[in-house]
Amino acid sequence: MKVVSTESSQVLAARIAERLDVPVLGTEFSTFPDRELYLKTGETDGETIIVGSVVDSDAFVQILLLIDACDSSENTLVLPYAGYARQDRRFKPGEPVSARAVARALGRGVKRVITVNIHEEATLQHFQVPAVSVTLASALGRHILESDLRDPLILAPDKGAGAFAADVAAVGSWDCDCLEKVRLSGTEVRMEPKQIAASGRAVVLVDDIISTGGTLTIAAGMLYEQGAREVSAACVHGVLSSGAYARLIAAGVTGIVSSDTYESACSRITAADAIADAVRKC
Question: Per the confidence metrics, is the pTM higher than 0.90?
Fold first, then answer.
């Protein structure tokens, strides 16, 4: 068994290889003058773990090229961050179901797929090979447990993230709640915890992904207005696009922690252990 990765997932791939005690293949990446991508990887053996997050279109193409380059091996695709997964249905006529299109393309040439906290688990069926989504809820919980926060309130930004937040909170037996929108008038909406007051509490906003950070920025401001002692944020996929990090810090968020499924300076939690466990079970 050997591990190979795209440019966007080199650190995580090395960590997975370390957990599995297998070598990492070196890969050469370059771009032709017409912007076509080229890669050349090392010699594979009977089984290859291909690690690549779809952080942009080039990363998607690199995964396709790696799958083809490793066609003499039995391949397991590890897709830590599944870009395009949020367009999981046709909202308007003429739109593609992007999650299905990408999954179908990536499922060819591999025996199985491992993802991490995929946006919608129904997407897994579109890979057309055995596919699983592992969760980092426990890893986020352990990170909070090892921090200096005392008796934090774990808060989901909406009902949809409630189950994930509950799994994070279970690690430390902490209070858990989700935000709800309370309409004060025809034009004014207030966001507040549904059941547990934030006053005097250290609040940790948790979600599977922080993209633009718009909802969390508004939530942080309102939580401080409601007396929260401090507000921090933790997520699996720290996309943090369109100035999200600076926007959250400006709103008073004291820290932002994410995993290495989407590698950045905020990646202080690793998905390597959960992924390695899933590989061993294959």
Answer: yes
